[in-house]
Design brief:
By secondary structure, this protein is an alpha+beta fold. The protein has six helices and eleven strands. The longest helix has 23 residues, at about 60-80.
């Protein structure tokens, strides 16, 4: 007998974007300010000042960064709560990079720097694993093709500086190696001086598997094998057991363990 599966629910999100003015004066003279309304909340937005926007208003690049940071926060709190890990505080000084390039431009990197405080007695390695799981399950991260790097620091409440283990975990690529060097030195960007010594620090890089802007969080093993054979050792997809920074086959991107 054929098993019937209930239809999956589709979530819908809506935003209204409005602008008025005139472009008759050419590129240099039209107003970039516009309004975005989401569920009755009004956001005054503009372009990046580099593109003749208003520095006092939010720009789309900032909103993408904020969405990535917010989604990672919510995803981590969800997996931590399900794992019965007590999180006491979470902060993130996130950053995005966009280079001036020939052809269509894009955000080239998103760097998240979550600083997490957990209850006394919490296993730091388990928290780092949950950060990875949270990123793999983050809706926004799975919707972007921009390279994403996470440089987390974890503090156990009540422990003295220098008493926690410190580790650097990096993915492939120059950006990840640089992040690992910083993490290994205990200087996670954005972390207060006292926290740098007390934290267990890691860094890993996530890169999309293909050029498409949206894709499932998990791809087929063929994706990993194909990219590995071509020397492209960083892609979103499942890992064979024992491969990846966690060593448990649950990494969020394909990596060359060497």
């Amino acid at each position: 007998m054929e098993t019937l599966h209930p239809p999956l629910h589709t979530h819908h999100y809506r935003a209204r974007c409005t602008w008025s003015g005139s472009t008759a004066g050419g590129y240099e003279h039209y107003d970039r300010n516009h309004e975005v309304v989401i569920e009755g909340q009004h956001l005054e937005c503009s372009a990046d000042p580099a593109f003749r926007g208003d520095a006092m208003q939010l720009n789309p690049e900032q909103l993408v960064l904020a969405a990535a940071a917010s989604c990672q926060l919510l995803s981590f709190l969800a997996v931590a709560a399900r794992a019965r890990v007590t999180v006491l505080a979470y902060g993130d000084d996130a950053e995005a990079e966009m280079r001036d390039e020939e052809g269509p431009m894009q955000l080239n990197a998103i760097i998240l720097r979550p600083r997490i405080t957990v209850a006394p007695g919490t296993n730091v390695e388990r928290v780092l694993h949950l950060i990875e799981v949270a990123h793999r399950e983050c809706f926004i991260a799975n919707s972007l093709r921009t390279e994403q790097r996470i440089e987390p620091s974890v503090r156990v409440a009540g422990e003295l500086p220098g008493h926690d283990r410190r580790t650097a975990m990096t993915g492939a690529g120059a950006g990840a190696r640089a992040a690992g060097a910083v993490a290994g030195a205990g200087a996670a960007a954005g972390a207060p001086e006292g926290e740098r010594n007390a934290a267990s620090i890691s860094a890993f890089t996530i890169r999309p598997c293909g050029p498409e802007p949206a894709r499932p969080a998990r791809s087929s093993p063929a994706c990993w094998a194909m990219r590995r054979a071509r020397g492209e050792t960083n892609c979103r997809g499942p890992l064979p057991s024992g491969v990846g920074w966690s060593g448990r086959g649950v990494g969020v991107g394909c990596r060359n363990p060497a």
